[in-house]
Amino acid sequence: MQLRVGWDRIVTWLNWKGLRADRHAGQGLLAVGLLATAASFLLPRLEFGASALRLCLQVSIAITAATLFLSALFIHRIVDDRRQIAESEQRFRRAMEDSAIGVAIVGLDGRIVQANPAFADMLGYTRSEIEALTFFQITHPDDLQIGRETMMSLKEGKIHSFHFEKRYLRKDGTPVWAQLAGSVILEEETGRPLYLVSQIEDIDARKQAEARIAEAETRWNFALTSAGQGVWSFDMGKGGTTYSETWVKMLGYADGELDGDPDRWLTMIHPDDREHVAEADRAHLAGETPFFEAEFRMRHRDGHWVWILDRGKAIERDGEGRLIRAIGSLTDITERKQAEERLKISAAMLADEKERLRVTLQSIGDAVICTDAANRITFMNPIAEKLTGVDVAEGLGKLLSHVYWVADEESGRRIELSRPSANERPHCDQNTRAVLVRRDDTRCSIRQVVSPIMNDREEFCGLVIVFQDFTDARALQRQLAYAAAHDALTGLANRSSFIRTMEELVDQCRLHGGEHLFMFVDLDHFKAVNDTGGHAAGDALLKRVADTLRDVLGPEDIVARLGGDEFAVLLKSGAGERGPIAARSIIDAVRNLNFSWDGRPHPIGASIGLAPIRAGCGEVDEIIARADAACYAAKAAGRGCVSAAPDVVSKEGMTPLPLAAAS
Hints:
By secondary structure, the protein is of the alpha+beta class. Helix 1 packs antiparallel against helix 2 (about 50-100) and helix 16 crosses helix 17 (about 575-590). Strands 12-11-16-15-14-13 form a six-stranded antiparallel sheet. The chain contains 18 helices and 23 strands. The radius of gyration is 63 Å and the shape is elongated. The chain folds into five domains: about 1-95; about 100-210, 2-Layer Sandwich (Beta-Lactamase), CATH 3.30.450; about 225-330, PAS domain (Beta-Lactamase), CATH 3.30.450; about 365-475, Beta-Lactamase (2-Layer Sandwich); about 485-645, 2-Layer Sandwich (Alpha-Beta Plaits), CATH 3.30.70.
């Protein structure tokens, strides 16, 4: 209905224009007709002659004929005007309906009287929906003032057409940029504005493209400025070279101050750099290089030198190959050049330090092997060559395991040397009980220190292995350790090591239970041998007794010399059953020694005191004291006897060891 009303208003306006033309034409014809009638009635009454009468009649007829001709002409004109109006109306309708650009007829109150399909589609409405709205309802809030100001100016007659850009709101609320162009339709007689006819073109894609271009230009300019880059452009047609603001500021000048003379920049180059820059420029202009590139120093306005990286390219030449246009960029690389200089100094210092380190490692007495992160050998000094039996030329680049094979001295298991695991904190690993196994299967004891190499990012870069031939020292260690734990005369465990062993057994019994037996063995008649044969005879007898005790007892049993002619035995397994039997075996074996010195026989015997080792038996010194007392009792009973100490009843209620009768 609204669409029909809109069309009717336009058609009514066009018909009104036609009627005004008909009225003026009718008024003209009526005037001519009245003039002819008046002449036909009035002229005969005038007192003229026959000639005058005939003349009047001829004039009257001529006027009448002219009137009829003019009437026909005006009628034809009216019909033609109406046809043209109808055609104009039809063209207007078709142009509006078929236009790819939005068209709208808008009242002075902003109401959309009529809209074509293109405008409705642009905003996602139907025609009926959009014609129920006003321009203010579909305009972006930020652009409402533009429409209001335009409408006010049209109403006041200040403007009769308009052209501007603004944003509309689609039906879904999203904004869309549009370009408006239109004019006001005025009443012909009064000049009063009636309607606005607007053409609305969707320019959203163009606006977005412009925004992207502007953003790209902003980023580009910001990137150039941030990177310290300037741009120069040479154009022979424009009279020389122009420089960007960044370029001139780089050298301390004002914008435009260096524009013009294309050769001025050459005068600002450091004398030491001018020759190679001129050569690079000549080579590019001659077409020998695809582009111009050079690093050089340019004098700043205040006198100091700025390092510049200049890149350029000829983009237009004339028919004879002469340069017409070129463009390029300049980058301030002063900091980079300073950093390179510092790196050169650091590299030289590092090379000196590396050489000092190499000489040091080559000359020290320790063997050194270095690997990379893949465990491949990168360095071996002469001592490492000697100890491993592998030449450095052969070892470099090989896996560490092909050159350096290390085993644990006690277990014989191979010691793996590799990068630490991901969850393992790198640390220095020192192993003083390792054996180096050479390719020919010969071995030597070594002391090694393995240190991981980590960079500043805590990344593993390799290993440094420092090792020494420790064979002699290890042998000495073993000798010292043996001497500290054994009796020098008999080779049996000495008193201190035997006491430590007993303490361990006592602790085990307290924690885990079990039972062991301690024997206190004292020789009978030993003093007579010493008195008659001297210390040499006594020492010889003690060695014979030690060998006898080892032969009688089992491999798990421990025999020690406590001092003088006193010995100790620990039965570690089956003590309850084996104790009396083992004691009798010792006594019988000592009695049957048949020891003689300087041809003189010496009868020897042994007395033994027994004391159990189990939970609740007390400390070591208490156990030894009880066994010593039992041995004293055995001697008092006639020597050559076994006597058991009175049992100390434990909390577990264990039974005492039975007393063996003397032989």
